[in-house]
Amino acid sequence: MVHDKINYNIDEPSSSGKTLSIAFVNQRQYRAQQCFMSVKLVDNADGSTMLDKRYVITNGNQLAIQNDLLESLSKALNQPWPQRMQEMLQQILPHRGALLTNFYQAHDYLLHGDDKSLNRASELLGEIVQSSPEFTYARAEKALVDVVRHSQHPLDEKQLAALNTEIDNIVTLPELNNLSIIYQ
What we know:
alpha+beta, 7 helices, 3 strands, DNA-binding transcriptional activator CadC, CadC_C1, DNA binding
């Protein structure tokens, strides 16, 4: 929800700001399961629809959808994205959409926080880093996962030294400067 609301009547529909709704719908079409993402941006002042899009999600088009959605929101809101944000997205995102799916899966495992999930997150992120070394954000995420794993079950000296070396290397990457992953 995007808003600049000053009237906080929670029992009534808002008359200020804008509402962004995103819904995922699974439909069975021609013997195949398809996932759609529906995006709608409504101006609460007059009830007008500023953006209404529907995307078919496949294994390889997540980056294209993300880029189109960001561009469409920018146009609908008449608010260009800052140059710094555009550069940052280009630097930290993978160049292949399938990697993004695996990255989000690994991040989901991290959020679970148990041993099995953290080990799986580390494995997935290791595979991502191996297949796409330019995806530096995945390197940082893997280091974060390994630090959390170390806090639960201490690593041996060799593993800990390798982790500390990797963290030292990650901190020096200019594309990750001032990102929250570094401070985590």
